[in-house]
Amino acid sequence: MAVQKKIPLRKCVATGEMKPKKEMIRIVRSKEGVVSIDPTGKKSGRGAYISKDQEAILLAKKKEILSKQLNVEIDDTLYDELLQFVEKENK
Question: Residue 25: which H helix or E strand, with range?
Answer without folding.
Answer: strand 24-29
